[in-house]
Write a structure and sequence with these properties.
Helix content: 40-55%
Largest sheet: 3 strands, antiparallel
Pfam families: ATP-cone, Zn_ribbon_NrdR
Bound molecules: zinc ion
Number of helices: 6
Cofactor: Zn(2+)
Distance between the termini: 7 Å
Structural class: alpha+beta
Family: Belongs to the NrdR family.
Function: Negatively regulates transcription of bacterial ribonucleotide reductase nrd genes and operons by binding to NrdR-boxes.
Shape: globular
Order of helices and strands: EEEEEHHEHHHH
Keywords: ATP-binding, DNA-binding, Metal-binding, Nucleotide-binding, Repressor, Transcription, Transcription regulation, Zinc, Zinc-finger
């Protein structure tokens, strides 16, 4: 597993334990080259899913992308990380169980909204308000960018904007964890 910080290929597993009701294995890893620490998850994948975008473009389903939008919606919300992971896994299982190899970005968005509704009402509102405007759009990066910048009414401070950029950057580096 490549180090997300320095790119070294030589990272070591320090600790492995079951997570998410034993449906996943969580591994703490450390990079001997830069000392960076990061976490990876190993999960069962029941089916290969393809996302059908509105543009007609198809791409392999990517759990990390889904997780990123959830994390951005949950920014600064005190929600237990295990519950969040379980919600994301629940969305993925529901997609796998549709019986179709193709899922639409709309199906994914609706399931994430339902999951967030159970998890945290603020995150739900954030996600839903941005998502509804993006139904016609197909650009996920733009969606997450918009979500990161979402300000409920007058709560917009410069600090919030910085945090939003930070969490978007953090989410991007998460891409390297696979
Ligand atoms: Zn490193």
């Amino acid at each position: 597993m490549r180090c997300p910080y320095c790119g070294s290929l030589d990272t070591q597993v320090k600790d492995s334990r079951p997570a998410e009701d034993s449906t996943a294995i969580r591994r703490r890893r450390v990079c001997p080259d830069c000392g960076g620490r990061f976490t990876t998850f190993e999960r069962v994948q029941l089916r290969e899913l393809t996302v059908m975008k509105r543009s007609g473009k198809r791409e392999p389903f990517n759990r990390d992308k889904l997780a990123r939008s959830v994390m951005v919606a949950l920014r600064k919300r005190a929600v237990d990380a295990e519950r969040v992971e379980r919600m994301i896994s629940g969305v993925v299982r529901q997609l796998e169980q549709t019986g179709e190899a193709d899922v639409t970005s709309e199906q994914i968005g609706e399931l994430v909204m339902e999951g967030l509704r159970q998890l945290d009402s603020v995150a739900f509102v954030r996600f839903a308000s941005v998502y509804r405007n993006f139904r016609e759009a197909s650009d996920f990066e733009a969606f997450v960018g918009e979500l990161a910048g979402y300000k409920p009414e007058l709560a917009g401070t410069a600090e919030d904007a910085d945090d939003a950029r930070d969490s978007a950057g953090q989410a991007k580096s998460d891409d390297f964890k696979r």
